[in-house]
Amino acid sequence: MDHRFIPNLTEEQIADIQLKGLRWTVGHVHANSPFYQERFRDAGLEPGDVKTLDDLRKLPFTTAEDLKDGYPLPLLSVPERDVVRIHGSSGTTGKRKILSYTQKDIDDWKDMFARCYEMAGLTVEDRVQICVGYGLWTAGSGFQLGCERFGAMALPVGPGLLEIQLQMLTDLKSTCICSTASMALLMGEEVQKQGLADKIRLRKAIFGSETHTPKMRRQFEQALGLEDSFDIIGMTELYGPGTGLECEAHDGIHYWADYYITEIIDPETLQPVAPGEVGEMVVTSLRKEASPLIRYRTHDLTRFIPGRCGCGVNLPRLDKIMGRSDDMFIFRGVNIYPGQIGSVLEHFKELSAEYRIFLSRKDGLDHMAVHVERAPGAQASSDADLARALAAEIRKHILVRGEVTILGPGELPRSFSKTKRVEDSRGEE
Prior knowledge:
Layout: H1 11-32, H2 34-43, H3 64-69, E1 85-89, E2 97-101, H4 103-119, E3 127-130, H5 139-150, E4 153-156, H6 162-172, E5 176-179, H7 181-193, E6 204-207, H8 214-224, E7 228-235, E8 238-246, E9 253-255, E10 260-265, E11 279-285, E12 296-302, E13 304-305, E14 317-318, E15 323-324, E16 329-331, E17 334-336, H9 338-345, E18 351-362, E19 365-374, H10 383-398, E20 403-407, E21 422-424
Parallel strand pairs: 3-4, 3-5, 5-6, 6-7, 18-21, 19-20
Antiparallel strand pairs: 1-2, 7-8, 8-9, 9-14, 10-11, 11-12, 12-15, 13-14, 16-17, 18-19
């Protein structure tokens, strides 16, 4: 299969590219990064110690805290005169994680992103409505860079602005939207509510930035009349979105292994997990000049998918991002990820994919309430039975009790970006 942007590489060729890139990166930061120079001294490492890909495990991890501690320009490994742009993401301590880019970094990013549009089966005739944040965030800039490099028409609307979004869909006849899953769901609901389904020409969606369930995906695909949708991965620390995309076979996400190395580790032991097991994704950049990453702990949970993909692309695959290791909450001694509740909802066709988890503490005892929406068309008369059945299923799968409340369609708050699934007030007692 011929592609304009996606390379046809064998495993051996990928391994050669990765080793060359790893050795370049190690030498680059050893010569130019005060942060990594100190880390290497502490570990007793020299660039010559990296002779094979297995030597990657000798290198120290990098964390989000390292980026915040190095604020405002952490990991900088080139003279400031070579930096042409910065992007940043929010930080929980008030300091943002800011990453620097050289022109080559920008060029590499847009080439990776062009691969995503190609993987999704778009052509230069497509009109791509970009419904994600611009400015300091990487999302809007990345989607637009890749779109222009690929050659399709970019419609840079940004997030929110629902009236304008719908106007672009109907007047400009957008064929692809790029958004979070929550935004796609919200737009789908509005298209149905306003009777616009026969006035739009959407065929595809590229979505990411938050975990989603198959039910949520089916809801926005049906509401928007899509032929297909594609899960995208990426993060500000590693260029931005566009570092991998699900293919039309929908059997995992192909990631660009010629630009970065991925490891899957146990977040507790920091050792590699067994093949196919879920763990935390760790990335090492192979070409980044301004802010290289060595063994950066993403906290994203996923797993490798072995074997060849039916789509014909040889690049390796990850499973969808299943959540974050730091999203886990402990309820009555049980470790729970929000996505586990979403997975239980798959068993109930009468319920939608929307849910919220509320954690509270009364008289020293933790309580969990789960609010979910009834699916459009489902009868309210069955709410009590549904609530009991869902509570029982949650206990069966997660081993804890929760009080379930069934709400009407659209009663939970909607989001233009990532939906907040958990509200924890236990520290407010």
